[in-house]
Amino acid sequence: MKHTLQFSRLLCLALVATFVVTGCVRNPVTGRLQLALITEAQEIQMGQEGAGQVERMLGLVPDPALQSYVQTLGQAMAEASERPALPWRFGVVDDPTPNAFALPGGFIYFTRGMLGLMNSEAELATVLGHEIAHVTARHQVTQISRAQVLQAGMGLGGLLFPELEQLGGVVGVGMSLLFLRYSRDMERQADDLGFGYALDQGYDVREMARVFAALGRLGGERQSAVPSWLQTHPLPAERIAAIDERVAAMEPLPPGLRVGRDAYLDRIDGLVYGVNPRNGIFRDGLYMHPDLAFQFALPDSWPRQNLAQVVMAVSPREDAALQLTLRGEPSPDAAAEAFLRQQDVQTLETRRRTINGLPAVVASFRAETPQTVLQGLTGFIAYENRIYQILGYSLVGAYREYEATFQQSIGSFTRLADPAVLALQPNRIRLVRIGERMTLAEFDRRYPSAIPVAELAVINGVPGPETVLPAGTRVKRIVQG
Ligand SMILES: [Zn+2]
How many angstroms does the Cα of residue 236 sit away from the middle of ligand 1? Predict the structure, then answer.
């Protein structure tokens, strides 16, 4: 959770958008007519809503120079594409898993983890080109299932209990857009088009293979709100081979193609690497937030997610959820009143109390949706000029079973006093220019990193620890603080 962001009204976040099948539209890339579920105006509206949710839930990396760098590169490329007039937006979200994704209408995001993995502007440009291509070819529009479109207008029940396999799915249709999967043909087309877009901007497109190679070497899945690029982009060797074929077909390549290694590395020097503990950690059955200096308990056995504006956990049977958010109201009373007067929410009981010395209001309620009836317990707690809400809810029939868990979680909210946790700092990328040639393993001995040397090799784009680095090479290391 990041304290700069405002509260989320997850429970009552009812997306008002409704979308309908509109018939035929002309595909801007192929020129062919295709059946479309939504018009361009609706596509943009859907993307805007999705982008808002993505930015609220994941948060943007607080680095304006880095954000405008990505925006500038992306904007130039998009303006040269088949759909220059879309409200293109490019951003870097604060998530450690390497990924890049495009929402309908031209909203494109890289994760912080993806930027940490790459080593040149040309690599960035080829991934940008690929994601832009998904938008120009209107791939999302054909992939968005009718179910997702309907879900957008469904409101409470649909948002609370969709398929909860991925907690990310809980937070709404915008986030579910992150899990869109494209067909193989679409991926091939995006690679083709993106290759052309990057080349038009003068980038050395041979660098694209390096991105695939790094993602392939990294493998594995990390704890994250977003799926990795490997999950959304299957990585057959065929795709890497296709890059070679495209290059071979173009030989000789135009002269003076740009790699932009130094320009890129300058931008990511100092970028946070891996999970940022300042945004909150789960430890020993507690959620602890060093910046905001509070902690509260969550059941250890419940899968949980720490997002920019909400900390949430879902019961293993997926019939109950617990979450913490920040409220915008000035007092626990005002926050409770605002929450309880929402349509379809019926107050059962409300009372003032203190929780570990902090002023609070605790209320029980029922909420009716077209699909189901929920029962819940919620606490509003005043602490250091902020109002926190802990909200536990379940299907009404299961409430008795979870009531004690909800009470325990609300009653556990207190000041974080552990000095070691308060002092936690994230790891960061630091660049070192080596004065003499050495292997990466030697570099790692001389300039130790907080990650294994194999991972260091991946983020430096070299095959392994024994790779020899020439004198003058700039090498990434990962250090704390
Ligand atoms: Zn793709």
Answer: 13
Q: How far is the CA of 130 from the centre of ligand 1 (A)?
A: 6
Is residue 172 very low, low, confident or very high in pLDDT (cuts 50, 70, 90)? very low
For the domain 278-422, what is the CATH code? 3.40.1000.10
CA distance 83 to 200: 15
Neighbours of 126 (CB within 10 A): 28
Q: Alpha carbon of 171 to those of 4, 38, 419: distances in Å?
A: 19, 22, 33
- Spacing, Cα 160 to ligand 1 middle (Å): 29
Provide the 3-class DSSP secondary structure of residue 160.
helix
pTM tops 0.85: no
How many A from CA of 133 to the centre of ligand 1? 8
Which tokens hold the place of 171?
Answer: 């937070």
For residue range 120-168, what is the model confidence (pLDDT) as tens digits?
Answer: 999 999 999 999 999 999 887 776 654 454 444 333 223 333 323 233 3
Q: How far is the CA of 460 from the centre of ligand 1 (A)?
A: 23
**What's the pLDDT tens digit per position in 248-262?**
887 888 889 999 999
pLDDT for 118-131, tens place per residue?
999 999 999 999 99
Reduce the DSSP state of residue 311 to 3 states and report it: strand
Give 28 Cα–ligand 1 centroid separation in angstroms.
18
Distance between Cα 192 and ligand 1 center (Å): 11
For the chain, what is the total number of helices (H) and then of strands (E)? 18, 21
Q: Which residue has the tokens 């079973």?
A: 401
d(CA 27, CA 33): 6
Q: For residue 226, report the distance from its CA to the centre of ligand 1, in Å.
A: 15
Distance 181 CA to ligand 1 centre (A): 8
What are 312's strand-pairing partners?
305, 323
